[in-house]
Amino acid sequence: MSNYFISETKTRSNGLKITIDDNILTEGFTTCASRMLENYNSLFAATAVEKLLASGAQIAGKTNISEFGLGLLSEDSYFGPVFSPSFKDALSTGGAAAIAEGLCDAAVAVDTNGAPRRAALAEGIYCYKPSYGLISRYGIVAAVSSCEGIAVSARELDTAAPLAGIMMGADPKDGTLTEKKLSFGGYCVKGKKAALINEYGEDDILAGAVGQLIKNGCVVKKISMHEVKAAHIAYYTMLCAESCNNLSRFDGIKYGYRSPRARTLEEIYVMSRSEGFGLNIKKIIMLGSELLAKDNYEKYYNKALKIRRVLRNRFDDVFNEYDIVLLPAASKRCFTINDIKNNPDITLDESYYTALANLLGLPSIVTPSGVQILANNMNDECAVNIARCLK
Fold this sequence. Notes:
Mean pLDDT: 95
Radius of gyration: 20 Å
Low-confidence stretches: none
Strand order of the largest sheet: 1-5-2-8-10-9-14-15-13-11-12
CATH topology: Amidase signature (AS) enzymes
Strand content: 15-25%
């Protein structure tokens, strides 16, 4: 079995063949790529999975990710990292690699820290992360509850977007959900306005995208927004704080890994979490605990919430004038194990490019060339149709 898959499913269906990342519940095996949940079996499936199955889709298997989806790609999975079939030594995720190998039509993932978008870039495929509140989060193994959501990757945008549409709609089990459903029929993009944020720079990939948009009748202008420099710091602060709370349930008592060496209640807690979690998760929990301490809450976590509000107001102004914002999906196409060893802060650094969509709940589309398209919340149709102009 390729380590793209943590578990494979042998079923027959005439529908789309899809993979499900292993931090989305399906009936049976779910591990979150962690020793903590190595032997966990869920009794129910996520609402999104139920909707996909009802549509006739075939689940090819559960795919490998970073532990609880909180890494750069899949570098800290308990089952070993996934390497791209497209580029030698490049890291990927199981779902994106399975698409590149032709093992499935699409991959359903949780975009917690931008990993599905980076993996799509590595494999030269599309990734579509819908607006926060369009797809039910019921059945996601939560880490960053206020920012994460389900994303879909595929070779073609016209595969990914309708598949996301199937998962949208009302769910009484998710109080953050809107009942809005979107239609992804094409329409003319002539006259649409796109903004380039100066602070992200403009490389050859973005320059090529600008040329294609102008050719299709779009208006593209550069804007300055110094506030974006704080977005990834604010997001990482919230990531650590919220993950610390959400991962506290894995304690060796209620469910999850329990150390066989533990003899006392304190040892059960300490040894089970020490042995069950990987290094990155331990760092996140420890930092999150410190950020939420009485003396630090106002200084750090509350300040991150204020930065999110400032950015939300700033982007409201931008989207009053522009339909989309263009920026890179990452600093480069591929990342290796050595990149991570040489820069322990690489996950934080790369969040500079992906944090805005998570922090503000914006729809994001990454094209095979590496262009990232952001639109206003619930304006996904515009992002999808403009993305059709790009490759």
